[in-house]
Amino acid sequence: MIKSVLIFNQLGKPRLLKFYTQLDTHTQQQILRSIHAQISKRPDTLCNFVENTQSLDNSNTRIIYRHYATLYFVFVTDLSESELGILDLIQVFVESLDRVFENVCELDLIFHFDEVHYVLSEVVSAGMVVETNLQEITRAVDEAK
User: Fold this and answer.
1) Separation of alpha carbons 39 and 36, rounded Å
2) Is 96 left (phi over 0), alpha (psi -120 to 50) or beta?
3) Given CA atoms 123, 125, 131, 136 in this order, what sign does their dihedral have?
4) pTM score, two decimals?
5) Minimal CA–CA distance to 19: which of 45, 58, 71, 67?
6) What is the pLDDT of residues 92-103, one digit of tens each?
7) Helical H runs in the chain?
8) Alpha carbon separation from 37 to 3, 11, 42 (Å, rounded)
9) I need a surface site. Which of 77, 137, 140, 143 has the fewest CB within 10 A?
10) Sign of the alpha-carbon torsion through 26, 22, 52, 71
11) Cα torsion angle, 111, 8, 43, 80, sign
């Protein structure tokens, strides 16, 4: 199960925070800071998985992330999720954003946060993967406009 989806820039400024479990704002900010501290200092030559993180209360979690330009796309999952499957899901999510915004950038995530949340809700709902077909995702977003 996907526990949370985070997008933040290189400075740790959140651009999207979506938690699928009930957490107070202070805890969410602590998690964001901890995850940013862990993955921002990792060189690009290391793998995109971090297991048994100290950022979350539960030790059976895994951080799976991709670094695109100035943004980190992070999925926090339990151990039952496939790392490669989540990496592919991140790629689908980014490509969906790219189709919706035509060359997505950080400013699109800031000024059109509602559309970003809608695209995410088409891909993941309640911590479960709903759709991975790019055409279906963009069609649903276009219909909502």
Assistant:
1) 6
2) alpha
3) negative
4) 0.92
5) 58
6) 999 999 999 998
7) 25-40, 83-101, 106-111, 113-123, 134-144
8) 19, 10, 9
9) 143
10) negative
11) negative
